[in-house]
Amino acid sequence: MNFSDQNPITLSFPESFETERLLIRSAHFGDGVLVNPAIIESMEELRPWMAWAKSVPTLEETEVSVRKARLSFLERTALCFHLFHKQSGEFMGSSGLHHINWQSRKFEIGYWLRTSCVGQGLVTEAVSGTTDFVINELQANRVEIRCDARNMRSAKVAERLGFALEAVLRSESCDVSGNLRDMMVFAKVRGSEF
Questions:
Q1: How many whole angstroms separate alpha carbon 135 and alpha carbon 139?
Q2: Which domain holds residue 24?
Q3: pTM summary value
Q4: CB-side exposure of 120: number of CA atoms within 13 Å?
Q5: What does the mean pLDDT of the chain come to?
Q6: Residue 182 domain flag
Q7: How many CA atoms lie within 13 A of 160 on its CB side?
Q8: Which among 69, 5, 59 has a CA at the least distance from the CA of 34?
Q9: Has keyword Zinc (predicted)?
């Protein structure tokens, strides 16, 4: 059976992988206790860009989100990965695969890092590892990174990793305040960028 014809829920692939400094693994039930403090610490940096960061979540709300992420992983509708420092075991942030099209094997990478870990190249490392995973393990044909056109830090990650800026979608969606925003679309495509 062709990979693209297979029902995604039957696909088997690793739930974790490593980079030089990071263990990147799927979300597990119980991770809320690790994720919640990182979100609270990082709210001011996350709020402008992440729709889910409108208000500070309770521990229970974070655990519910983690459990939903786990179920989505098992259903293969979205693949949320948690980032852990290999030496300290500290939760560092998240990198996930969203807006998946299994037939065409298109994936969008999203990511965030807790504030205390910013500036160490960890997001670039995590996104590089996630890109390698989606290309090698999931046979991606297209990998995208989308970000608000004002989010230059996120755009720089895509540029550093060789993603091509394909478009700026004007007034594509609303930001967390309800204002229209432009969206940058970066991509790597099999046969040209990998």
A1: 5
A2: 15-141
A3: 0.91
A4: 14
A5: 93
A6: no
A7: 14
A8: 59
A9: no
pLDDT band at 167 (very low <50, low <70, confident <90, very high): very high
What single-letter amino acid sits at 78? A
Q: What are the φ/ψ torsions at residue 193 (nearest 5 degrees)?
A: -105, -15
Confirm if 8 and 76 have CB atoms less than 8 A apart: yes
Q: Say how far apart CA 182 and CA 84 lie, in whole Å.
A: 32
pLDDT at 1: 40
Neighbours of 9 (CB within 10 A): 10
Number of domains in the chain: 1
What is the torsional sign of CA 83, 119, 115, 87? positive
pLDDT tens-digit series, residues 79-118: 999 999 999 999 999 999 999 999 999 999 999 999 999 9
Q: What percent of the chain has pLDDT over 90?
A: 84
CATH classification at residue 121: 3.40.630.30
Tokens of 164: 């091509």
